Amino acid sequence: MTFQVVAFGLNHQSAPVSLRERLAFPAEIVRASLSELRQVMGRLAPEQALVSTCNRTELYMASHNPGQARQQALGWLAARSQVGHEDLMHHLYQHEEPAAVRHVFRVASGLDSMVLGEPQILGQLKEAARQAQEAGSLGSNLHHLFQQAFSVAKEVRSSTEIGSHSVSMAAASVKLAQRIFGDLSQTRMLFIGAGEMIQLCIAHFAAQSPQGLAIANRTVQRGETLAKSYSGEAFALSDLPRRLADFDVVVSCTASSLPILGLGMVESALKKRRYKPIFFVDLAVPRDIEPEVSKLSDAFLYSVDDLAGLVEVGVQARRDAVSHAEAIIDHGVQRYLHWKSSREQVPLIRTVKDHVAALQEAELAAAQKRLARGEDTNEVLMALAHGLSQKLLHGTYSALSDPDPQTHQRAAQIVPSLFKLQEPTESQADGPASEPDR
User: For the segment 331-342, what is each residue's pLDDT rounded down to a tens digit?
Assistant: First the structure.
């Protein structure tokens, strides 16, 4: 049965954050969601992987009926997110093989990201592969797809300038904060969460030498470990209502399915600060900060979509490398398709192998009987080799001497390449052909 790769989803280009957060899968529910999807899909698409980041939600599948599998999976996605099917279709992109393979490779290489060439997506794809493996939904097709994607991404990053001079979300956030406060060395900063994106943001903001730096995290110990590197402090999320007013810059990126900072909490903090402004960056999907906060005159709230314009600054330096990266990706797609094509011949290879093994066993058994009767060893071995070769070549001889012209002509074209034969010399071609044993 031949399986085809299908990829579909939405990203920062096709859907606003208000829709992306409804289709987001927090890390702690991905495995359960994959198990649920596997039950829904049954044998129609036995392989699935789910990628969910702040900028995209994508589903990869391997199915023997791509069209039907896609429709069934879309129905599941619409029901789960409670988004109307038509509304969902308006924002979705859908790819079937080979376009699906190329899409996955472009995502892994950072060519489909808001920040061209950003490296975080590669780690997120590796996590998606791991979760699919643990959920039992990563079959041979998707496993090889991911491994090839990681290999292509590595080649793109090592042989092109696609990742150099990158303007990341973190760097863009710093620039926005500087527009409001100017010198950030006079500010106190709060980071909510302790994941990879927050670590990247802290590195950028800490370079501005703020007056104070703190991390609020569900697991305080993890927050303390990260804060120690920057001479900062850490506290629990439950302390946010009491501590929020202490900070000028707040950056949040957690995996929470519900907002962490609500309108009421921010209003209270601004009142305590005598309405001194607070700069908020919400990099989470679903959002950590209620969108209504942006309506407060002294709260400056920016989401991932708001940062899209800033990250384009300076991107031209990397666009020159895109054509080279695309060529690497195209070559990777061909390698994947070649691997799939070769796998389709596995049943035939197995049949040939079993047939040859049976011939070997029969000839060996006959030779052993002759040796047991005391016959000459050399004669037995010669007879074993001769008998085995004649049986292996019987089909070839038959095809070459078939009375049907089309059959023996087709065999004559195939046999030289099959046995890696050189073209016969003129004397060989004119000389008498030796007859095969019958």
Answer: 999 999 999 888
Please tell me the distance from the alpha carbon of residue 191 to that of residue 247, in angstroms, as a whole number. 10
Pick the CATH number of 169-311 from 2.40.50.150, 3.40.50.720, 3.40.640.10, 3.20.20.100: 3.40.50.720
pLDDT at position 428: 52
CATH 3.30.460.30, domain 4-165+316-343, yes or no:
yes
Residue range(s) occupied by CATH 3.30.460.30 in the chain = 4-165+316-343
SS (H, E, C) 58-108: EEEEEECCHHHHHHHHHHHHHHHHCCCHHHHHHHCEEEECCHHHHHHHHHH
**For 108-152, how does the pLDDT look when each residue is reduced to its tens digit (9 = 90+)?**
999 998 877 888 899 999 999 999 999 999 999 999 999 999 999
What kind and span of H or E run contains 183? Answer: none
Strands 188-192 and 249-252: parallel
* Phi, psi for residue 436 in degrees, rounded to 5: -75, 155
pTM, full prediction? 0.71
Cβ(133)–Cβ(185) below 8 Å: no
Q: What is the DSSP letter of 8?
A: E
- The catalytic residues are 54
Q: Cis peptide leading into 286, omega within 30 of 0?
A: yes
